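Subject: Protein record for review, amino acid sequence with backbone structure tokens
Category: Structural biology, sequence-to-fold work with a learned token vocabulary.
Format: Residues in single-letter code; tokens as whole numbers, each standing for a residue.
Body of memo: The sequence and its backbone structure tokens, given next.
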Amino acid sequence: MIIDSLENKINELRKKLTEIVQIKGGFIDEEVILISQQLDKLIIEMQMRQGKRKKQ
């Protein structure tokens, strides 16, 4: 399902974000910010899709 795929992508990005933050030593790095923004978009998309499923 689409939500399962989104969930997998979210989990992968979370792991990547954690690793990058540890490598860069913080959150103020362009790569960290970009990954965080991608993660935000995927989370919002998943929440919207879950909301639509509940309404049906």
The mean pLDDT is 92. The helical segments are 2-24, 30-55. The longest helix spans residues 30-55. The CA atoms of residues 13 and 54 lie 26 Å apart.
